[in-house]
Design brief:
GO terms for molecular function: DNA-binding transcription factor activity; transcription cis-regulatory region binding. This is TetR/AcrR family transcriptional regulator. Keywords: DNA-binding, Transcription, Transcription regulation. It is elongated and about 55 Å long. The protein is built from 10 helices and no strands. The protein has 2 domains: about 1-50, Arc Repressor Mutant, subunit A; about 60-195, Tetracycline Repressor, domain 2 (Orthogonal Bundle), CATH 1.10.357.10. The relative contact order is 0.12. The N and C termini lie far apart (about 55 Å). It has helices spanning about 10-25, 30-40, 45-50, 55-75, 85-95, 100-110, 110-120, 130-145, 155-170, 180-190. With about 200 residues, the protein is mainly α.
Length: about 200
């Protein structure tokens, strides 16, 4: 790999390269060499920007969580518009894009990575999935406040149930992701007891 060539937005290029490796080959193939080869840069570039590979992976996951945080604000803002099932279906489809689905096993099986993420975000639960559940819970609370779901709805149970059901639909890397109608059917079934409009 050439050295001495300035790379613009190095972190973003390395994150994008890691995501491509994850999508193509899965979490087991994600190494510093695979990332830098995919990014078309020398291996030392990664280590100039991150103390070690687990620090890089932690930043990759935290970047993904920040995207969920941004999505959460948009989802909360949609409360009172459209339908609850429609808003949740769109949100879950975005959360469970193929990169997020690939990141979950990476976090689950790398203890050092999980520890670093918890230092930065001590929220508990499985990173990415727990953040997605918090996003859904915030939205459901806003809809409850507007009277669009039953006031007695157990949001703390309903939100992770939606995330778990959604994750099961998307988790198989060997089959194409479900179509939007299959996801909508799951969402509609899970929230049926909430009396949503």
């Amino acid at each position: 790999m050439p050295t001495g060539v300035h790379i613009r937005d190095v972190r973003e290029q390395l994150f994008a390269a890691a995501e491509r490796v994850l999508l193509r080959e899965g979490p087991n193939a994600l190494t510093s060499r695979a990332v830098t080869t995919e990014a078309g840069c020398a291996k030392g570039v990664l280590h100039r920007h991150f103390p070690d590979f687990d620090a890089f992976l932690a930043e990759l996951v935290l970047d993904r969580i920040r995207r969920i945080d941004a999505q959460a604000a948009d989802l909360r803002a949609s409360a009172g518009t459209g339908t609850v099932a429609g808003n949740l279906t769109e949100a879950l489809a975005a959360v469970f894009d193929s990169v997020a689905v690939s990141i979950v096993p990476l976090v689950t099986f790398r203890d050092e990575l999980r520890a670093r993420i918890r230092e930065a975000r001590p929220a508990g639960g499985v990173p990415v999935l727990g953040d997605a559940a918090a996003m859904v819970a915030g939205y459901l609370a806003a809809e409850r406040d507007l009277g669009r779901i039953v006031a007695t709805t157990d949001i703390d149970t309903l939100a992770p149930t939606l995330i778990g059901a959604g994750h099961l639909l998307f988790a198989d890397r060997d089959t194409p992701p479900p179509d939007i109608d299959a996801l909508r059917k799951v969402v509609t079934t899970v929230i049926a007891g909430a009396g949503s409009r």
